[in-house]
Specification:
Blueprint (H helix, E strand, L loop, with lengths): L2 H5 L9 H9 L16 E8 L9 E10 L2 E11 L9 H5 L4 H5 L4 H12 L4 E3 L2 H16 L7 E3 H8 L10 H7 L10 H21 L5 H18 L2
Parallel strand pairs: 1-4, 4-5
Antiparallel strand pairs: 1-2, 2-3
Helix pairs in contact: 5-6, 7-9
């Protein structure tokens, strides 16, 4: 992205009246609560994107699962491919199974994102390597809807080594943790399957958190913030 593109004012998205009304009807975002981890409704999200460039690449598909009442609710699942007619079919896109037919059959990005945020409601979000998903989702919402993402976003990739310090997998990816806990994952590299795998890992980590007397979303995020600060201090 050039310096000039940063200086130029961004175009406001053009939304239909119905879409504008749906944006206005999205619920306000509360902070993390002090309710128990088991009672909290969580939305576990995974994005497939056209690449890893935070400023140029686009969200291609969204997959999400819900953790509620201490279990994965398979009846609450979300999967949507966003229609991107200008998306080049890079090896990354093809790896995720998003060929020309899948992309052409996708939904209008504004409608897909509105559907997803209605699905999320006021729940906090979980993701593996959450900063990437949070940035990409936030950018897509801003560009397509003019909506500012403010939902709490917790990083499962950071929770795992914090809650399992005896496991020497500090820089591990999702596949490493899947193998470590012997999780049975039939498919990978599509948004829904990765969201399900992340949700299964999150349930194990919540159990570890409760065993360490951490039993609320707010307490878990506070402990994670402390752990990340100590980790950063030790890196200097």
């Amino acid at each position: 992205m050039s310096l000039l593109s940063w200086l130029l004012p961004r175009k406001k998205p053009v939304l239909s009246l119905e879409q504008q009304q749906r944006v206005q009807q999205l619920p306000p975002t509360p902070g993390l609560s002090e309710t128990s981890l088991r009672k909290q409704r969580w939305v576990v999200v995974d994005l497939e994107t056209s690449g890893l460039n935070l400023n140029r690449d686009q969200v291609l598909s969204i997959g999400a699962m819900v953790i509620e009442d201490g279990a994965i609710d398979l009846g609450q699942a979300f999967e949507r491919t966003l229609l991107r007619t200008d998306t080049p079919l890079t090896p990354s896109v093809l790896l995720h199974g998003l060929g020309p037919e899948a992309i052409a059959a996708g939904s209008d990005p504004a409608d897909a994102l509105l559907d997803f945020m209605a699905f999320v409601g006021d729940s906090p979000l979980l993701a593996f390597h959450a900063p990437f998903d949070q940035h990409m989702l936030g950018r897509a919402l801003k560009e397509s809807l003019g909506y500012r993402l403010q939902h709490p976003f917790m990083d499962v990739a950071a929770l795992a080594p914090m809650l399992c310090p005896q496991v020497n997998l500090r820089e591990a990816g999702l596949d490493h943790w899947i193998r470590h806990f012997n999780l049975q994952v039939e498919d990978r590299h599509n948004a829904s399957a990765d969201a399900l795998a992340t949700a299964e890992l999150a349930l194990i980590l919540f159990s570890r958190a409760r065993a360490q007397q951490i039993d609320s979303p707010l307490a878990l995020q506070q402990r994670l913030n402390q752990w990340l600060r100590r980790k950063q201090a030790h890196s200097f």
